[in-house]
Amino acid sequence: MNNSVFRAEPIGSMLRPAWLTDARRRMRRGELSAAEFKRIEDRAVDEAIALQESAGLDVVNDGEQRRLSFLGSLIETTEGLTRTSGLTKPWRTDAGSVEQLSLGLAATGRLKRRRSLVGEEFAYARARAKAPLKVTLPSPMMLFMFWSPEESRAAYRDPFELFADGAAVIREEIGELARLGCEYIQIDAPELAILVDPSARAEVFDRNGIDPARVLDEGVAMLNSLADAPGVRFGLHLCRGNNDGRWLSAGGYDSIARAVFRGATRYSTLLLEYDDARSGGFEPLAEVPRDKTVVLGLVSTKKPRIETADELHQRIADASRHFPHEQLALSTQCGFASGIKGNPIDAAAQEAKLRLVGEVARREWR
Length: 366
Fold this sequence. Notes:
Elements: E1 8-9, H1 18-28, H2 34-54, H3 72-75, E2 78-83, E3 89-92, E4 98-101, E5 105-113, H4 118-128, E6 135-138, H5 159-179, E7 184-188, H6 190-194, H7 198-204, H8 212-226, E8 233-238, H9 257-263, E9 269-273, E10 293-299, H10 309-319, E11 328-332, H11 347-364
Parallel strand pairs: 1-11, 6-7, 7-8, 8-9, 9-10, 10-11
Antiparallel strand pairs: 2-5, 3-4
């Protein structure tokens, strides 16, 4: 395994081209064969990798082009989730509005893995990428989005039983990736950053019978148990929700820093959302053990404004007052299309932001 610091990273998803979305619809209507669709999907992956490499990123992924959302490797490959419109979560906007949105699924049966998605993702991208390659997987606790106190208890007495089954699915995917030669796996855990916001914590967890203390205690232990594959570097990504430009929570990492940053002992890399005031200050970085790398998510994927190189260099300098500069790196704050539609950013802004990450990282750590 290469233990060098990747100074410029993507987080995960890239915008899915309209022609890919259209092709998926046509395949579902029976107007396009699976083989024809796969050729179109392959093209989308090729373009995502090429853009990341041309932007000067030190590590790339497949842009999650084969998934409907960042949760695809967990919910598109399992059984136990059924259609519903009654289960919603409060998503917020910068304008101050709150929208109760449904992801359209609820856990109503025991979660079982039917197939792998990440095996195809990695095997194809490995043959295309010139740069080091990473694969993203969701935290099993993201199944909280599909936990319904009314609909789920016939299958699970306790939401953490659902999370444990999700962990078993993710553990199998990690094993498959390791066998295929994957050397970098990133686990996306937005649920941890919900804990920093008392109102979001009450609405999302307390109201649905999910104990926030267990998320921070048992949840971190569960995440730590996943990061167990020889020769694989593990990264843990935290954000506050990323759904078509909306978000779930606001607040600094202060209240969870010790439990998460010190408790995630098997993760060598922490990838932290830091693109605006909702993420708080850099002071909690003092809790990060000095044997880790911190990747600062300073470039927003939610807003079309292009940050300036000067402001990014200044923010890196501010962060280095609390964590060693030589163990810092730079990334976007989250994926560009964590949800089905994608964030309100166009392809030109996406490219400009990725190039900015590569350019600033080269200057900062040359």
